[in-house]
Amino acid sequence: MDVYENSDRHNGHDIFAASSVADIQATLAGLNQQEASVTARLNSLIASQKDLSRELGRLDLLRAHLGSQVVSTRAISNGMLSDAASTANRISGAVKRLDREQSNVRATLEVVEQVAELKACVLGVHGSMGAPQDWETAAGYLSRASKIPAEVINGSFAEEIVPTAEIPDPPRATLDSAAESLCGLFLREFEKAAKEADGARVTRFFKLFPLIGRSDVGLDAYGRYVCHGVASRARTNLNSGSNAQRKEGFFYGNTLTKLFEHIAQIVDGHEPLVERHYGAGMMVKVIERLQIEADVQGGIILDTWHDERTIDRKLTDIKSYAFSFLVQSFLPAQKPSAGTPRSSSPAKKDSAAGRSSEDEGVDMKEVDGLLGEAALMLGRWALYSRFLASKCAVSYDWRSTYYLLTITASRIRCYIWKRSAQLNNAAISLEQQSI
Amino acid sequence: MPQFLSSSNLYKKVSKNLVEPFNVMTTFFFRRSVEKAFQLDESPSDLNLNPNKPLGANPPFITSAVDDVMYIVNQVLQRSLATSQRAVVSSVVPTIGRVLGSDFVGMIQRKMRDESYPKPVIQGGLPPEDKVIAFLVLINNLDIATDYIKRIVETQVGTQKQVAGDEPSNSNAPLNDLFPFGHDATFVENTFKAMEHSFSSKTGELLNDSVSVAFHRVLEPRIRPILAEAFRDIDYAPSNSEDANIVQNDEESPEGDNADLVKARFDRGWGALTRPIKRILTPANFDRLLVTATTYLSNALEKRIRSYYGRVNELGAVRLERDVAGIINAAVAGGKYGLRDSFARCTQMTLVMNMEEDEWEEAAREEVGKEAGIAWVLDAEDRRRARAIVKDRAG
User: Fold this and answer.
1) Which domains does chain B have, with CATH numbers?
2) Cβ atoms of B241 and B317 closer than 8 Å
3) How many CB atoms are located within 10 Å of the residue A100 CB?
4) Which chain B residues touch A if contact means CB-CB below 8 Å?
5) pTM to 2 decimals?
6) What is the pLDDT of residues A103-148, one digit of tens each?
């Protein structure tokens, strides 16, 4: 149409507007020409249609092929892969079950072993507490029993298995009562030995307390024992001095020195024993306990010194001393050295001498002696503080504890990180296997 | 110090029953000892200002109070340190410093002012010998006491710091042993140093004052007469004929005598004045006195050179230079070399007077601070005036 109109307009001829034959002929010729071109185009289109339909046919063919492929693929996936997947699932489930069973078996075995151990301990305690009176062995069994987890001891299985005809009670009750009676017995023995000053037996029973889980009772008894020793020794030292000795120079200084030395000896000598049987850092508790006794005994010595040497009187005397010589010579122009400076100086000396005899209220030798004794006591106190500080610093230094803690924390973190990486890897390989 | 120890009853009891009385008693003990030392104070015997008579004792010449007090200082400090108590040291050491500063130094000051002030009995005369000696001995007291305190503190604190100076932690090892807790050792060291410092500044002040008194009262009135005597009848404008005479005379009498006349006279006078004092003063004190004296002497000498204005000819100028140099040598003999610096103006004046014309023209143009050859202490105007002293060159 477009073409037609165009050409029509182009020619500028309209058959309806034709006014002559020549016009009509010209228009006709134009129309003919148009028809020819349209026909040619139609022909070419028809020719291409043939190609297209051939292509379409080929496509159809391909689609048909594809369809069959799809069908076979689906069949394969349904038939074969699902089998494999479920198999893998089953396998891993079985493995897990196996693992669980194995660990269960192991746990059960452990419990059985523990219960067997428990039974051995209970029997051992009972046996050694009976006729042989072997306290060390009994305490050793109790210490072994204390390593068995509480839920095992309290568990119904143990309650079933452990009691025998001779020991009908459940194991917990047996152990507790054994520990209780042993504790009482050790305490009695310890105190008896302490009273008899039997060092070897004191040590023997002292060592047994931690084994039966009564460290606090042991430390307490031990603390009482050493404090008693310190107190009695200090009292003897203080009272031993005759009146003459007490008056003599450094009596109180020496008494205080002996007290500190005694404590230091105890701390130094007993520390290895306490730390070995009761654990590191336990000596600090003993030291603190001893310090209370040192407070009492040292306080008594200092108070007696203070009273017997009448320190307060001396201080009052000292405070009332006027330093008249110094003060007088500082008074402005007490004797204006105008004309006779020579005669003024002997006068001054006389008056000074007169005053100094007045001032004999404070005996310098005595003050010097008191200062010496006080200095001695202060020096000993400083030594003693330093010694205790060093002893406590070794086992009780919060800084080193803090350091250890940080190190442990970082180690744990590192370990966790490694473990989680391993777990990830294992999971990945499992998945790969199952597919 | 662990908590249970510092909060224990014994700790409280120690500080109440021991530390407090210790501090109070030490304060009293020390102050009373100072008092006693001054009550029993004795000056060294048989001192005199006659250079021909021997002194009856050995130097250093100090009164007995210094030795007594310093012995007690050392003893008290040692005892306080031995207690290892920060509370003791922090109370005792400043107290000792205070008593030393007020009572010890104060006593010496009082004695200087009231008992031994070198004051002439007759107006215009010289102070009596015993006063002068006593005053000089008191000056020595200050010097020696400062030295003692310094040494005592050094021994107590430990001197490793000054010697080695490497690791500061090792520096006060003895103190660290005695005061292991916290920063106590450093605190103690600083307390000692502060005491020494306050004492030495106090004595230093009084030393300067007393040395200047000693100079004004004892030396100064005699310096002018000595100079006058040294330059008596000396003519720095010898005529040529006189010159010839001298030459003739020189042939008869040995040249040295006449030439060194001024120096010999001055040396005699100066020696008579200073030597007895030097015998009594400690070396450090004599140095202090000499510094003051040479400054004054230099001024007097400069005035005297100026007073020869117009009475010096070229030959005289040569002699004058020689004589001035001789006086300077005599004055600083035995002292520090640096003492010569105080005479720089005098030497430069005689130097200018003796310059050749061409040298002088060069020197006249130079300005202070920008000189090529000589570090001038005289400014250009001073130099011109000095040059003009010589006759015929005026203007």
Assistant:
1) 3-209 (1.10.357), 231-388 (1.20.58.1970)
2) no
3) 10
4) 1-2, 4-5, 8-10, 13-14, 17-19, 21-22, 24-26, 28-29, 31-36, 38-39, 79-80, 82-85, 88, 103, 106-107, 110, 114-115, 117, 131, 178, 180-181
5) 0.70
6) 999 988 888 888 888 888 888 877 777 767 778 888 888 888 888 8
